[in-house]
Design goal:
Layout lengths: L2 H13 L2 H8 L3 H15 L4 E4 L2 E4 L1 H24 L7 E7 L1 H6 L2 H10 L3 E7 L2 H9 L5 E6 L7 E9 L1 E5 L20 E5 L4 H13 L5 E5 L2 H9 L4 E5 H9 L4 E2 L9 E8 L6 H13 L9 H5 L2
Parallel strand pairs: 3-4, 3-5, 8-9, 8-10
Antiparallel strand pairs: 1-2, 5-12, 6-12, 7-10, 7-11
Helix pairs in contact: 1-2, 1-3, 1-4, 2-3
Length: about 300
């Protein structure tokens, strides 16, 4: 098993197409196919299932992909660690909550790419449960969480900004006239929620469960924009970060229902594994974070982290 074979395997798995993988890698398709077959022969199993022009990972292929990604990432880190260039370079793989990626971090990433064009940023959208798993198996280098403050002992977390949460509806909803809402007001309402694994969805569901409140129905979307569109269209009530709906509130396209129930306290946090080597590439990102997101709370400051 060679690194080159794992890179080919990983690329085919990502593209689900041998021809496309060959084009991206600059190899002949026959070479790509041959290298995958060598891997299959070595492990004594099929790594892909071929259905028409598309290929899909077999169960054993799914297992190997996890290890292949870790091995390739460690190889890249080793090259970065031994590089003599004073200019940060390489790749950073970042887990990001969609709401932060869309509404909080675009200018940060734009500035980072401007300052460090030699560094490639790979963003993986996901929920908190994904980030915990990816950090622990080294799939990602760092994650931006929108969560209650994280206290996991195997992770280093820095809290930056409190993220106010709002429960919103369209401007004609009957609860707008009340002036505020509490858990009981959501009885028999339609809730428009993010996917399971989202921290603030979990916080709201916990509050409602403890109060014995049963919404009439729940619509679930993986897209913040879809949630906003359905809410503005009058299909239900949504819980979202205020930053995600600030423009809609200002232009009277949505209404803040003024939640007075138990607090739903979320914070923007940057998190990485305590055993993670902080390469010059990662330190450069942490340094920029100090400029864009002032740290708050009692946890370690960004300057402290950048020196670890």
């Amino acid at each position: 098993m060679e690194l080159r074979q794992l890179k080919i395997f990983s690329t085919v798995a990502r593209e689900r197409n041998f021809t496309r993988a060959a084009e991206l890698l600059g190899y002949a398709q026959s070479n790509v196919t041959a290298q995958v077959r060598l891997l299959e022969d070595e492990f004594g199993t099929k790594l892909f299932e071929r259905l028409g022009k598309r290929v899909y990972l077999s169960p054993d292929g799914e297992k190997l992909l996890q290890y292949a990604n870790q091995i390739l990432k460690l190889s890249s880190e080793a090259k970065d660690a031994l590089a003599t260039s004073a200019v940060p370079h390489g790749t950073i793989t970042i887990g990001v909550a969609e709401s932060l990626c869309v509404f909080r971090l675009p200018m940060l990433f734009k500035e980072y790419c401007k300052r460090y064009p030699q560094i490639k940023l790979i963003l993986k959208l996901g929920a908190s449960a994904d980030f915990y798993r990816w950090l622990r198996d080294n799939t990602i280098d760092i994650a931006f969480f929108l969560n209650p403050e994280i206290t996991a002992t195997d992770l280093v977390s820095v809290t930056f900004l409190p993220e106010p949460m709002v429960i919103v509806s369209n401007t004609e909803h009957r609860l707008v006239r009340k002036g505020y809402i509490e858990p009981g007001d959501l009885q028999d309402e339609c809730l428009i929620l993010t996917e399971r694994g989202c921290s603030y969805r979990a916080a709201l569901e916990k509050i409602l469960n403890e109060a014995g409140i049963q919404p009439h129905s729940t619509l679930e979307f993986g897209s913040i924009e879809a949630i906003k569109q359905f809410t503005a269209g009058g299909l239900g009530i949504a819980l979202l970060p205020r930053a995600a709906v600030e423009i809609e509130l200002q232009h009277n396209r949505m209404a803040d229902l003024h939640w007075v129930g138990p607090g739903i306290n979320m914070y923007t946090q940057v998190v990485y594994h305590k055993d993670k080597w902080l390469s010059p590439t990662l330190v450069s990102l942490l340094d920029l974070l100090k400029e864009y997101l002032p740290a708050t709370g009692d946890g370690p400051s960004c300057s402290t982290i950048a020196q670890l």
